[in-house]
Write a structure and sequence with these properties.
This protein is an alpha+beta fold. Helix content is about 25%, strand content about 40%. The radius of gyration is 14 Å and the shape is globular. About 20% of the residues are buried.
Length: about 120
């Protein structure tokens, strides 16, 4: 089984708004959010940070990469910023990640990091 790890920074006043966003995201992707932790982000007090993972039954690297890209797209739906994609690399089976940085935008999703762990 493979895991896709998420770290999301969300700029809002109450933790409940991030919880609502994650509930909606969970409904869009139809996966459980494993070991979800939400805390105020220590560097920027106006943001909350959520950390969780999703387990995938897919075994093929290509399908896992595609699934990760679909999950990233659904996370940032409606936000025009682009994801930075790192990997996959031919000589390294385990490295694939996506980074989203929305410093300039007025949407509450400010930053996200998704990393694929192939099991």
């Amino acid at each position: 089984m493979s895991k896709i790890h998420f770290t999301i920074n969300y700029e809002i006043k109450t933790k409940r708004k991030l919880e609502k966003f994650l509930e909606e995201y969970k409904g869009k992707i139809d996966f459980e959010l494993g070991e979800l932790k939400i805390d105020r982000y220590w560097k920027i007090q106006e943001q909350f940070q959520a950390v969780f993972y999703i387990e995938s039954d897919l075994m093929e690297k290509e399908l896992l990469v595609y699934q990760t890209l679909v999950l990233a797209n659904k996370l940032s739906l409606g936000i025009s910023n682009r994801w930075i994609i790192m990997g996959p690399y031919e000589n390294e089976d385990r490295h694939f990640e996506c980074i989203f940085d929305n410093k300039e935008g007025n949407k509450p999703l400010k930053w996200a990091h998704i990393q694929l762990e192939i099991g």
